[in-house]
Amino acid sequence: MSALWPLEARGYVPHALHRGERAWTETNCYVDLWIELMHALKLDPVAALAFTAAADDEGDQWTFFKYPLEDLRALYGLEVHELNIWRSLPRHIDEQLQQGRPVIVEVDSFYLPDTAGVSYQIDHTKSSVAVQAIDLEKRTLGYFHNAGYYELGPPEYDGIFQGGGVSGAVRLAPYVEVVKLHALERPEEGELKKRALALLAHHLQRRPRQNPIGKYRARLESDLAWLKTEPLSMFHLYAFATLRQLGANYELLAAFLRWLEARGESALPIAAFEEISGTAKTLMLKMARAVNSKKPAELGPMFLSMEEAWQRGIDALLSRYGN
Question: What's the pLDDT score for residue 169?
Fold first, then answer.
């Protein structure tokens, strides 16, 4: 076996962001795997969350927010590159792990046991995992995904690699990234805060110029009318792309601001972004009931409260950290 750390799925303790009282325990696959990967590297993933200040309404979805690779380089010296897949993917992973590099792979959740009850053996959906252990002979894999660390065996291993095995070629090579650790830094607290604040100022410059929740609210009625003509399964897809990304994004922004508060920053608009997160969770449940029952629902005031909270929060951050 090639492995970076002696981890076992049983007994693994995830990062605090994936434990305790949170409205959104999971966010999206890419953010979640990086939270656990940085946790394993003894880096603080909360310090890297400044990018959440720039999320936007993209029309048919909320920004599928991710840790920007340039932020990971600026904070911790992590280098992330696409891996060219020109032979057996398991062999590529094995070689990169032997060089001390985690590998991030897009896979089919149909073969991920940790998604039991959601997509495992149910739906073919794309997801990303961070592989830190592989055994070519036993056909096992150890990986970070969603809120933890997991392992899978031969049947799922063969599915993940599309039957390519050690020597065979996959039907269509997935997108794969390798994380190079040669320039890894663990800055002391003062320097880390300085870098995090610089990133916050940068991402505030990238913020939406129009209130994104106001944009979303403007199309709410048409979205709701359309969803009532679709099966409930369509609402679940819609909710993941919209309300879940919206709510989880601002819960993480609030966590980032709490991190800054613990390091001496004061009068931060934490409550405004926590309000957005909590309201989005309530709205998702109310919309699900409205779609399922086909009955009218008065959701506008809740969206308006989120819209106002976003404006208060962003204005407060701009007055303090904007350029």
Answer: 55
